[in-house]
Design brief:
The complex is a heterodimer of chains A (360) and B (140).
Chain A lengths: L1 E6 L11 E7 L2 E8 L7 H5 L6 H6 L7 H16 L5 H30 L2 H22 L8 E2 L2 E2 L6 H25 L1 H5 L9 H7 L3 H5 L7 H4 L20 H25 L17 E9 L2 E9 L8 E5 L1 H5 L3 H4 L8 H6 L5 H5 L1
Antiparallel strand pairs in A: 1-2, 2-3, 4-5, 6-7, 7-8
Helix pairs in contact in A: 3-4, 4-5, 4-11, 5-6, 6-11
Chain B lengths: L2 H8 L1 H4 L7 E3 L2 E5 L5 H10 L3 E8 L8 E8 L2 E8 L16 H11 L23 H4 L2
Parallel strand pairs in B: 2-5
Antiparallel strand pairs in B: 1-2, 3-4, 4-5
The chains are: A alpha+beta (360), B alpha+beta (140).
Chain lengths: 360, 140
Amino acid sequence: MSYKIPMGPYHPALEEPYKLDLVCEGETVTAAKLHVGFNFRNIEHLAETRNHIQVIALLERVCGICSNVHTMTLCQAMEGLCGQTPPPRARYIRTIVAELERLHSHVLWAGVAAKLMGFKTMFMTCFEVREQVMDVLQAISGNRVNYAMNRIGGVNRDIEDPQSILKMVEVLERGMVSTIIPIFTSSTTALSRCIGVGVLSKEKALSCGVVGPVARASGLAQDIRRAAPYAAYEELEFDVPVQPDGDVKARLLVRALEIMESCKIIRQALTKLPPGEINNGDGKPAFITGTSTSRLEGPRGEVIYSVSWEEGSNNPSRVHVRTPTFANMPAIRWMVIGARLADTPLIQASIDPCYSCTDR
Amino acid sequence: MTASATTLLEGIPEKLGSATSWEEKGGALWLTLEARNVRQLATVMNEIKARFLTATAYQPAGQESAYIEYHWDCEGQLLGFRFPLPGRSIDSIYDLCEAADWVEREIHEGFDFEFPGREYEPLKLRQGDTMGVTLREEVK
């Protein structure tokens, strides 16, 4: 006999409100329907009422985890409309902050996943390490959530003492290597909950258009940092981890390996940080009429901004945001089919969903 | 752009009946097409294994004119396709491109554009009877 089980919009397994209507045969999920929109704020429309400075502060609030990636993508798009190129030092600082954001996002996700596995000690360990990443971000920007680092033509704050930041990064890298990575890649407790669970095949991943770690865990080697480099990525060495299995374990491994790659990128960028200006000054940018599209590889995957402007206008005429979770969430319907009901909280969490971003 | 992407993209304007060629601007290669060609575009994009990214609806403030832009990725090259929509309607590509499902629903709810050939379920808006309004005007 089949029966329906609603999960959400307010549920202990969900970090933010959304709803999964599950159809089960016994303990096995046979179908699922997703409902979003509980956080809908119509930020895209609000953006049309803000000038080129205010719009950055507004779009930084799309997400509380990957706030930097939103302002960076927006600024890159606006730079395309006013012909500005950030100076080399600014490009490196943008890269460092983007990778620190990836680090704290992935470690936060690892903590949430550990909690859903019933591995509460690991949850506390992850959040302790994440605090160290937040400390580094605070040392650079003065802020812990919305860093206000990006502006048109560069960044707002310099990294005045890269060596001290490098030391902090080395400490947190040791924390990752000694605890988080080994536990998530070898612990029977962790892996037994993940192997063969929530599989998304390569074909389905392609068809759904999933992005970021979800795509790379299904065997798709797509990463905008490599395919269409921006900021300083073209000048830095890093690998793009790909796993073929498409299950929760593969998503976990991809993120664990990406943590190591992020540390590698940050170390290189701090060491090679070029001298010079961090932005192009305070002059008002001269926007031309047109549309500019910008893409970045955020912690959860590819973020896309399309920004349109009319010459002489103070405000953008259109700002469209395609967040990675918007692309990844529909795939949950396929991941949960055939899964045990008890695994669905972990499966939905394995895409590292952000409903705030999705609903924007 | 990779050499194989260049080869893949060469014949596409002609295939889609476009009188113009690719135009590079704003970080993408662009083609402007007529609305009746959108399903043909989705088929061609599937053939070259391009990855659907998003669609963006536009209705300039105070103007009747509207248009929609689709983006695909071909081996790291961003592609943009612009469709003027005098009738605020363009065929759905959802059956050809599963990844377009949510964005079509979102545009229908927020801009009142129609995508004939599909059924809508509420995505962002919770009440069915408010679907298909122009939120930009309602929010003013």
